[in-house]
Design brief:
The structure is a homodimer of 208-residue chains. Chain A is built from 5 helices and 12 strands. Chain A has 208 residues and is of the alpha/beta class. In chain A, a hairpin with a 5-residue loop joins strand 11 and strand 12. In chain A, helix 1 packs across helix 5 and helix 2 packs parallel to helix 3. The longest helix of chain A has 15 residues. Chains A and B meet through strand 3 and strand 8 of A and strand 3 and strand 8 of B. Strand 3 of chain A pairs antiparallel with strand 3 of chain B, so a sheet runs across the interface.
Chain lengths: 208, 208
């Protein structure tokens, strides 16, 4: 049986104590993946950003807020796992500074400098060794090309291309690509069923 | 019996199709207020940003995403109500532009120009006539002073000062101020009980 790490949900990058940058990732795909792996008898660890859903009993969850925190937790837990599925949608940018008090309205525009956050899967890839990595790509254009670039950059063994309406919805449309650029499968349906499809692809290609 | 409009939850201001500015408002206070007013036999309309909670059956809810959308829905519904409780935490700033495709990482910093969004309660105040307005103030410093400034700017008949840890939590600490600057009451406890306390204050001062 395998030990699988799943990153899940969004992260938040605060500009002041109240306001943040984020996205509508709900954690539902991460949760559905956890269920699919648990149902097949595998062990599941989750690193999750702030979500309102409950993860299935039987998996251990560590909650984080920022991308930096998700990175550290993921690196620590990956060391003890056989593979990782990057189902989280971590913020790629964070405000360069975080104000200690709530920014007040003055009538003037506000200029916010955003810096890039660390790339979690790329960091895990650097410590990959014999482990496998499944990435997700959410692209609004040039999906297959960008998904393959992501796969290469993050040394993924499989990448799941996700269509934008999927975020924060219960339905999803996905395509799985292997490192040689072949389509391993496609699926349209509920996140629960999509997670089972992904489990099937991972089981076939990566678990032994 | 009164007809009450409650604004609730956060709003989102997108910089591209996936990323947005927001805050951790969960809609729980708006929902608890709706319950308190419904329990006392009043009619409740809600304008809510994106939330994961369910509002109580018996109130009509209109969902919106941005502050601008919340403003338009609130103005429309306020015309037919006796008063409004501004329990929402609308984004005060929005990106000046929204990219039509997901912004890609280039290794460079990103400069985001933010402009102020319209002030919903101030806009309702302009059409106030005989109606009452209850505002919320979430401040990280100078709470009472800023709450009173807000009360005046938005012509509130009551303002509830909320302490920041309250956001996205089930416990809350609130103080109610009247237009003459007097403390009408304070409360520390669950949001459900705080909503009942607020209902009591509104009932005593504003309902007839």
């Amino acid at each position: 049986m395998a030990k699988v790490l799943i990153t899940s949900g969004p992260t938040r990058e605060y500009l002041d104590p109240v306001r943040y940058l984020s996205n509508a990732s709900s954690g539902r795909m991460g949760s559905a993946l956890a269920e699919a792996f648990l149902a097949a008898g595998h062990e599941v660890r989750i690193v999750s950003g702030p979500v309102e859903i409950a993860y299935p009993p039987g998996c251990r969850v560590r909650f984080v807020t920022t991308t930096e925190e998700m990175l550290h937790a993921a690196i620590e837990l990956f060391a003890d796992c056989d593979g990782v599925i990057g189902a989280a949608a971590p913020c790629d940018f964070r405000p360069a500074a975080r104000a200690s008090d709530k920014i007040v309205k003055t009538g003037d525009d506000l200029y916010l400098r955003l810096v890039e956050t660390p790339d979690i899967l790329a960091a895990l890839a650097a410590a990959k060794q014999g482990r496998w990595i499944v990435g997700f790509a959410l692209e609004t254009r040039d999906g297959p090309v960008r998904a393959m670039q992501k796969l290469q950059r993050k040394q993924c063994d499989l990448i799941i291309l996700n269509h934008p309406p999927a975020i924060h919805s219960d339905r999803t449309e996905i395509t799985a690509f292997t490192p040689d650029g072949a389509v391993l499968g496609t699926f349209i349906g509920s996140k629960t069923d999509a997670a089972r499809a992904i489990y099937g692809w991972v089981e076939r290609r990566l678990l032994h």
